[in-house]
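Consider the tokenized backbone below.
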């Protein structure tokens, strides 16, 4: 679920929005900023909802589907006005923030004496998504289009090349949702066996 942040907001989102909407770097970067802002708020809302619903699994599952449902049209409905895309990206970031519960879920699954190791390992898995998916998306963009070289020596790609490559993000969100079907509930108020 973190890939929307590590691959799109941190690297490929701004160049994609610049090409798709023919806006400058500063305007396009608002899309990434809104994902980050949405995620910050989602990280607050996710635990609140998990305590209200007494379920980490339910909140993370809804978070994966919510991120998918808002990110997909943000990338593929280029006929929407830019503020509409920014609204969708903010919402996708909000739902993506619910992934923060993976740390609590991992801690609850493992013995208490391994809490620090568990949280460190989960953080490492989260952070390793950045170099893997940033590079993967770059290679996919190259594979879908040769790209012209601009006056500054930087390759220029079409929005379609970005869209094909960015399909890896919604695909990973669906994989996250499927994986959640096999994770046991870890909320302390529900018990380990549910």
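A designed sequence for it:
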């Amino acid at each position: 679920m973190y890939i929307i942040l590590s691959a799109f907001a941190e690297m490929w989102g701004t160049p994609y929005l610049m090409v798709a909407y023919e806006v400058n770097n500063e305007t396009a970067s608002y899309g990434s900023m809104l994902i980050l802002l949405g995620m910050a708020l989602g990280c607050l809302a996710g635990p609140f909802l998990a305590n209200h619903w007494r379920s980490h699994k339910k909140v993370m599952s809804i978070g994966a589907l919510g991120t998918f449902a808002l990110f997909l049209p943000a990338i593929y409905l280029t006929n929407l006005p830019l503020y509409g895309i920014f609204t969708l990206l903010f919402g996708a970031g909000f739902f993506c923030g619910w992934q923060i519960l993976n740390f609590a879920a991992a801690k609850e699954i493992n013995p208490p004496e391994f809490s620090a190791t568990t949280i460190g390992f989960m953080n490492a898995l989260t952070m390793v998504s950045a170099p893997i998916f940033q590079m993967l998306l770059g290679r996919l963009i190259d594979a879908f289009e040769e790209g012209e070289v601009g006056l500054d020596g930087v390759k220029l790609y079409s929005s379609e090349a970005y869209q094909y490559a960015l399909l890896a993000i919604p695909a990973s969100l669906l994989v996250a949702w499927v994986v959640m079907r096999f994770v046991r509930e870890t909320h302390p108020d529900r018990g380990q066996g549910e």
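The CA atoms of residues 38 and 126 lie 18 Å apart.
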